Structures are given as structure tokens and as C-alpha cells.
């Protein structure tokens, strides 16, 4: 595997500062726009773009470009997307729900961006916890638990913004149990992947995303 030449520390620091400014602007403007009913429709259309920009920023600071990384990325995308696909058409994994138009183009009634979202969340939480322990099972448990907390914060906002809707408007308990299980599985794959898991912007992006959904829980009419 060839080593990628590193930019001077001053350049790396400048890139990191610029990226953090972009993240704050991206999610800060999003909070304001989604909180104002007269502008909400326009900002909802930008939701897939917001996730794609987040993906590009994360990959821009990713260090572990080994052969194992795209395998993990594909597994995260397709396991997450596949679980949603089964859930939508059977109601047996996460519960009985349907997707709205907010998340953009769909494949078999599931937004394609959902697979990207699974990758992003596992990547972020995995990058934050990868140094906490050498035990893969414990690390996967911590990462999946963090994703469970994010899902709990995100659910009311997602419903209010027409991302998805639950039958009888009730979130079933199995949604959280199976979300944890799928996240745990993908985190194990992440841990077993032989690639550098450090990313200097991951923790910042994760905190920003959590704040984004937390604030919207208070500004939206849920």
C-alpha cells in the first residue's frame, strides 16, 4: 500500500478550520431554515445534499485508504439500506413505517441516501470510540449505543419533517432494539477493517449533528 504524502501542518490546520466552518454553516443555517415555516419547504429539499456534503467532508479527512475501507463502506451502505428495505416491505425489523419525500430519490421505496446515512453514523461513532478500547465487542457496543441515542433524538424531528412516518404515529420499541442490532453488526465490520480509523473532523461533525437534531426538537412543532 502506497503512502499518501501529508500536507504541511499549517495547511492541514487551515483545511481543518475551513471544514469546521463549513460544517457549522451547513447545520446552523439548516436549523434556522427548518425552524422557520415559511422557508422550511426549500430547506427540506436540501436534506440529501446536506448529507452528501457531510460525506465529502469526512472522506476528505479520511486517512485509511486501504483495500479494506471500500469493503467496509459498501457493507455499511448495503446492510443499512437492506435492513430498511426489509423493514419497509415487511414491517418486521424496525416496525411499520413508510418514507416521505424529504430524503430524495428512492430505490424500492427506500431513499438511496439512507444507505449513506448509515455509513456516516457508523463512521462517525466508530471514529470517536476506536481509541477507547481494544475490545471489538465493547467498542461495537459503545458505537451502537451512541447511534441508539442519536436515533432517539432524531425520530421526532424526522417525523415532523416528513422523512418517514410510523403507523398509528407510534414508534414501536423494536425500532430501537433492531436499530441497535444493525448498528452493532456494522460496527463490528468497522472494527475488523484493516484501515486507519482516525479522522480529525469526525468528533466535531458528530457533535454538530447531535446539536442539530436536539435544537430542532425544541424549535419544531412536534
Automatic annotation (TrEMBL):
InterPro entries: CruF-like. It comes from the Bacteria. It comes from Algoriphagus ratkowskyi. Keywords: Membrane, Transmembrane, Transmembrane helix. Pfam families: Caroten_synth. This is Carotenoid biosynthesis protein. PANTHER family: SLL0814 PROTEIN (PTHR39419:SF1). The chain crosses the membrane at residues 16-36, 42-61, 68-94, 106-130, 137-154, 174-190, 202-220. Signal peptide: none annotated.
